């Protein structure tokens, strides 16, 4: 039950149509695409850890943060489809809200770790070895998780469900925003977006400068690195930039229901953009690597080969059960040739796989 004395907010009448039209589509898309993509990403991070690569620790932590948020999406889908009416208890609202914000800021933290790790590996390959070890990566990861959990425990000690003008129980929504949220939003903008963006920009500018000056790097490799770096910064700005800018705008100007209603749609559209980070992370940091591409190409080709063999077996089974005819064509009387062709394909696949490993 909502405590009307403690949790009641100004009775703003807000048009929530964006939640019935756009939000379910985005949440369902991210859940369907993000869940398998992040599971594969987690496996890729495990392979990196197994190979004693500290980058795998950052990738696994980044993926775990994404998966935690993806698992909370069914609750948000039901929430928006019920016209922003939270039907569960307040504890679950807090948990889902924490997973939402944890996903944003833990993702930002580990994106910075990955960028700094790559910067040290490319720009200072023979220095700072103590910062590029498995132990250092585990310590940094523990610090990031501890910091964000403590921040959430400090921020979300207040009641996070309230009653709107339509008697709906809303979760993590205050219109207009409360006084205590202003300073928190300024902190989230500066420490959670602006500072990490400068770290990202500094790291990748250093990487691009070294790659540009390198005469031993092939031209296509340089293009690939530049595209990856520029895509990372671009997706960081698109996923997190609009949301944090609107946090500051709300903190400065939102002091009445009229402004809250005007900015509601664009603010929640920016919040939906942060959700796409769960899909962008595995694409950028895992599926863009050449070794991962070859691994998925192997899986794809193996599946196609198995499907081809399955079709052959089904055809042979049909031919064995069919009545014999004296005028059957020569190639149908020797189905073993098709099986041999399939075996030949498998042999060629093995050769290409071996070439890929080389």
CATH overall fold name of the largest domain? Rhopdopsin 7-helix transmembrane proteins
Query: Which of globular, elongated, flat, extended, rod-shaped describes the shape?
Result: globular
- Beta content: under 5%
SSE pattern: HHHHHEEHHHHHH
Number of strands: 2
Q: Please, how many helices?
A: 11
CATH superfamily of the largest domain: Rhodopsin 7-helix transmembrane proteins
CATH level 1 name of the largest domain:
Mainly Alpha
Tell me the Rg in angstroms: 26 Å
- Overall mean pLDDT stands at 77
Q: Based on the structure given, which CATH architecture of the largest domain is correct?
A: Up-down Bundle
Tell me about this structure.
There is one protein chain. The chain is mainly alpha-helical. The chain has two domains: 17-288, Up-down Bundle (Rhopdopsin 7-helix transmembrane proteins), CATH 1.20.1070.10; 298-319 and 329-357. Helix content is 75%, strand content 2%. The chain is built from eleven helices and two strands, in the order H-H-H-H-H-E-E-H-H-H-H-H-H. It has helices at residues 17-21, 23-50, 55-81, 90-123, 134-155, 179-213, 219-253, 257-275, 277-285, 290-321, 336-357, and strands at 161-163, 169-171. The protein has a two-stranded antiparallel ribbon with strand order 1-2. The longest helix is centred in the middle third of the chain and has 35 residues, at 179-213. The chain is globular and about 65 Å long.
Keywords:
358 residues; mainly alpha; disordered C terminus; single chain; two-stranded antiparallel sheet; glycoprotein; G-protein coupled receptor; OGR1_rcpt; globular; cell membrane; GPCR_Rhodpsn; Rhopdopsin 7-helix transmembrane proteins; 11 helices
């Amino acid at each position: 039950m909502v405590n009307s004395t403690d949790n009641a907010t100004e009775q703003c009448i807000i048009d929530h149509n964006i939640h019935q039209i756009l939000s379910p589509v985005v949440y369902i898309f991210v859940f369907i695409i993000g869940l398998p993509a992040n599971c594969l990403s987690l496996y890729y991070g495990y392979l990196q850890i197994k190979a004693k690569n500290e980058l795998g620790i950052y990738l696994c932590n980044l993926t775990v943060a994404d998966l935690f948020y993806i698992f909370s999406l069914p609750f948000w889908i039901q929430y928006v489809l019920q016209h922003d009416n939270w039907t569960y208890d307040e504890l679950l609202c807090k948990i889902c809200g924490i997973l939402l914000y944890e996903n944003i800021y833990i993702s930002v933290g580990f994106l910075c770790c990955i960028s700094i790790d790559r910067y040290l590996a490319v720009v200072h390959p023979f220095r700072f070895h103590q910062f590029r070890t498995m132990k250092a990566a585990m310590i940094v990861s523990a610090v990031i998780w501890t910091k964000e959990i403590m921040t959430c425990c400090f921020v979300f000690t207040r009641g996070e469900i309230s009653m709107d003008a339509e008697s709906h129980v809303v979760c993590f929504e205050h219109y207009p925003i409360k006084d205590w949220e202003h300073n928190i939003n300024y902190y989230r903008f500066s420490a959670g977006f602006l500072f990490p963006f400068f770290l990202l920009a500094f790291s990748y500018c250093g990487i691009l400068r070294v790659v540009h000056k390198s005469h031993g790097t092939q031209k296509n490799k340089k293009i690939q690195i530049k595209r990856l770096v520029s895509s990372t910064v671009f997706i960081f700005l698109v996923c997190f930039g609009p949301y944090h800018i609107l946090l500051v705008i709300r903190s400065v100007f939102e002091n009445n229901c009229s402004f809250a209603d005007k900015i509601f749609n664009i603010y929640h559209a920016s919040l939906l953009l942060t959700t796409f980070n769960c899909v962008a992370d595995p694409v950028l940091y895992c599926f863009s690597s050449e070794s991962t591409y070859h691994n998925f190409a192997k899986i794809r080709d193996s599946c196609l080969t198995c499907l081809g063999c399955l079709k052959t077996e089904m055809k042979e089974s049909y031919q064995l059960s069919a009545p014999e005819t004296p005028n059957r064509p020569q190639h149908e009387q020797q189905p073993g040739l098709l099986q041999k062709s399939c075996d030949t394909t498998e042999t060629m696949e093995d050769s290409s796989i071996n070439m890929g490993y080389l």
